[in-house]
Write a structure and sequence with these properties.
This protein is of the alpha+beta class. Helices cover 55% and strands 6% of the residues. The strands form 2 sheets. A 5-stranded antiparallel beta sheet has the order 4-6-7-3-5. The longest helix has 30 residues. It is globular.
Amino acid sequence: MRSINAIKSVKILLLSLCLALCSQTSFAADKAPTISETKVSFEQYIVKLKQEALAKGFEQALIDEAFTNVVFHQRAVKADRNQPETVETLDTYLPKRLPDWKIKRARAKYKEHEVLLKKVAAEYGVQPRFIVALWGLETNFGKIMGNYNVISALSTLAYEGRREVFFKKQLWAALQILKEGHIDSANMKGSWAGAMGQNQFIPTSFVGYAVDGDGDGKKDIWANQADVFASMANYLKKQGWSDQLTWGRQVKLPSGFDNSLAIPKNTGGRKNWLKAWAKSEKTLAQWQALGIRRSDGTNLPVVDIKAALVFPDDEKGRAYLAYNNYKSLMHWNLSYYFVSSVGHLSDQIKYPPIQ
């Protein structure tokens, strides 16, 4: 009888312990909601953004108009999270970025807009061929500008949270552009990341560099060619461009060359890259003395300018002596491949001379 009672007691005790554990688990679940339960909805986030915009001094009417048709773009989030890994070399990249048809179109566009380009070049000190090269590589000469509503795209990426501070900063700049009347929100179209117009300026770049090229009171980088070209030239000028220099040149290295004299391939951001540039920079005469020659084996130009040595791939790939204008292009896009494609396309525009 005692053994039966003992068994019953054990069962009761186990049942009590089970109930207690279940209760604690339930309580813990109540106290620790999942991420999806704590994150506000996109609609709630937009309400907060509008409140912040109002606190920053934007008028209610402008805010309401800008956010009237704002939507969440899942494709923008996917694109931001899944940017492709680079598995190219310049030898495979450049032929794809600079096919024959693009070179021919670049030369034709140069000829078509030559008068305007030369006017812009005289005002800003930027060779027309570089403007055309950037234009062609950014948007295929204005044909591919992106079809995302910029307010929606920036709101989506701010809400997604990976780079909220950055995209909110872009959003406030976009509202400033609308406030100044350069474009309306319905026509403010761009890429999934908010890069806008024929030159793909993000909103803060627009605020910092866009100019009214024809004096009509608006900075229209979407449809006004004078504004597009002048804004691109102004960007480069403000980043130290000189029309007395080209971008750089491909070179040959002597056997046994000390590769540590080049800028490392990966420096971890623009600030470190500029420090590496300062360490690498030498006069052409100094590079000549170290055995570096033009890609055809002839001597380097006898001119008193400085250059840094760049390996876009690694020491087994192509080598370039980069002039000061190279830094301006790297400010536009911190990518050796992008800058190389701009430089090579600009050279193809220049040679042979366009008649």
